[in-house]
Amino acid sequence: MSQVHRDFVTQIQFGFTPFSYAPAIHVSHCNCAIALTQIEINIMKKILVVCGNGLGTSLMMEMAVKEVAKKLGLEAEIDHEDLSSAASSKADIWVAATDVATQLEEAGKENIIKLVNIFDKASIEAQLKTFM
């Protein structure tokens, strides 16, 4: 292999913080062949727990969602808020009791975890796994 070919090894790396969406890409180039060695995308999800007033119910659901997310090893920003504020908020995943979830759907929100029983952590876990 000539010196030119040995010197023609290039690595391109795009780093990111946990809050950015730029992927980490490592590319090697040698002998006119490109090999994609690794693509790693870490995007922290935002989960918003919603209830009618954004006080007690959503706070209890938030605590349950945080516990389940920790158990699953899911790193996420988890917060709670009232239904009227949620209309203008953005999130990757929404969590709400069925009556509030219907209103979120009517507002055009997607990726909604609908809870019949807000204390059912098994239901939260099963539905949260579908978004991982």
UniProtKB/TrEMBL annotation:
GO biological process: phosphoenolpyruvate-dependent sugar phosphotransferase system
Keywords, in A-Z order: Phosphotransferase system, Transferase
Single annotated GO MF: protein-N(PI)-phosphohistidine-sugar phosphotransferase activity
PROSITE patterns for this protein: PTS_EIIB_TYPE_2
InterPro entries membership: PTS_EIIB-like_sf (IPR036095), PTS_EIIB_2 (IPR013011), PTS_EIIB_2/3 (IPR003501)
Signal peptide: none
Domain PTS EIIB type-2, chain residue ranges per copy: 45-132
Transmembrane feature ranges: none
Descriptive protein name: PTS system, IIB component
